[in-house]
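Collaboration report, partner site 2.

Our partner group contributed sequences for two proteins of shared interest, and the home lab folded both. The records are reproduced in the order in which they were received, starting with the first partner submission.
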Amino acid sequence: MVFGHCYSSCCSRVYARACLVKDPGIGEGVSPSAATDLIARSIPLQERSRAVAVVFGGLSFGSVLGLLFAPPIIQNLGWESVFYIFGLLGIVWCLGFESLKVQRFGDKEGILNLGQSSTGSDGLISSAMSSESSHSSLEDLQNSLKDVPWGAFFKSKAVWAMIYAHFCGSWGHYTCLSWLPTFFSEELNLNLTEAAWVSVLPPLGSMIITSIAAPFADNLISNGVDTTKVRKICQTIAFVSPATFMMLSSVDLGLPPWEIVAFLTSGLALSSFALSGLYCTHQDISREYASILLGITNTVGAVPGIVGIALTGFLLDSTHSWSISLFVPSIFFYLTGTAVWLAFASSEPQDFSKSEPES
């Protein structure tokens, strides 16, 4: 019985963490910054929230599909199969976009390649040019990294506000992602199947809230509301909502289990307002360095995925209290993150390059 319960709990955590793209490894870690750079350079301010919602809202869509399909895959093919199947789907997705690029730009690339190959009949010259191009690209990359005004970033209060907000939001996200299935099972006495279905509700709710929050933010900006004020409103909703619902869930009000599930689902779904708050601010303050700024905040935001999950388990073993181990730390970070965000966040464009002293 004990082994079966532990195995079921572990499986629920394995497929939950395996299916969410928002917890990237080294390879996937570059994708959020790449997407942010494209949005910053190509999408106007009045449409930015919707663009971010479409791109990063896909995480919730993937979460729903992952949480639905992973359990039968694990049951029939073993837990390793989740990684193989989802990894293969990622490769197919990438190849699909590569073929789309070839269809749209194939002729132009062919003309360029034809021009290069005509300079040499045996292909040696074009090969040398390719080698020189690769070497030049590496040098350009090294030079571009040296030119990044790292010091100016960390002198900005707005950047520090983004860093701390990202950390706080990730703490609540990662700890709930990892421990709520166990909370539903052990504290609310839901069976594994019910806990698995309930785990689909937060990302499903996030998809609904995202479709509301993004047009709401863009319409406010289009109607002349200050961008900083819009980002602060959205991020405050994203932090205060889950904190409030966690408070209600952590105290003994004699509520039935499904009402607690509804509270937690609503709070986590409303945290998707962050896509129109924090996740747009990197692009607001600097189109040129938006991807690097997201890389900085996202790196700090990954820390709770390591520390927060382990600390929650340690506190749970020590106190045997879900309120103290899971909810209280998240509430603390949500509320302090709100205070820091309201005090120091800004969407005013900043020229970080001019902030660096001339050498």
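Second partner submission, folded after the first:
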Amino acid sequence: MGLGSIWMVLVVIFCGLGVGQWILKRVNLWLYEFKLGVKKDSLPPGDLGWPFIGNMWSFLTAFKSSDPDSFIRSFVNRYGHTGIYKAFMFGNPSVLVTTPEECRRVLTDDNAFKPGWPLATLKLIGEKSFIDIPYKEHKRLRRLTSASVNGHEALSTYIPYIEQNVISELEKWTTMGQIEFLTKMRKLTFRIIIYIFLSKTSERVMESLEKEYTTLNYGIRAMAINLPGFAYYEALKARKKLVAVFQSIVDGRRNLKKDDATHTKKKDMMDSLLDVEDENGRKLTDEEVIDIMLMYLNAGHESSGHITTWATIFL
């Protein structure tokens, strides 16, 4: 093959790659924007990224780096300080809102904006949790389920246990040399939350729950690729294991209540969820109890560990 032919082949290859990239970058646009007709002209600036992946690769790269703001900054650099951009996140065409004024509008305008979660996230947190139910049902469940953990009276019952564990852990840490503080705080808050949920449980069950929950939590912030080796696939397996553990505990509690109707032991959150009933006398199903427990575990563990870490740093 002559030199001219080689150059011709290279030109064709590079042209083919360029055309292929141009097509791939527009697949999401053709799938989601063109069907809007003239309405697409009112969309904010931005791009929908690659097919299926969208903007998730750059989002996750920034999220796990020392500069998470770089993800939004890339939109600002390309499209200006508009405060609102189109993107493709967690398998859905999305709008990113980045200014306090626009965030306030989204959070307060209930007529224009409704709460919602990606289907992939819903499968991990649970379809019977608060994140995908109508507003009235959400309000009813919050009222029924939060009494066991909200308010000074409820929390005061756990203060001695929390104090005892914090002192014990601090004493341990002083003998361990260098530690990763956030990791230790997450373990400590997990132990405390499990106590509030289930009272005392064996060390083996505690470690198993923490291991599976950590795997589940990684999957919530990952691309929803349900194939072996991917975080989302492992998270779905972890959810099944967590549900099995909680189901066995629910079964045990229900049997205990049958055997001892006069049981007056101090209630933990699991007991409260099993006993609570609405004004019509309807109690929560096992599925509702387990999904609510997993939701509260996710919300309480993540926020408590990180907030305590930041409070310690600033103090």
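Feedback sent to the partner group on the second submission included the following. Residues 3-33 form the longest helix (31 residues). The radius of gyration is 25 Å.
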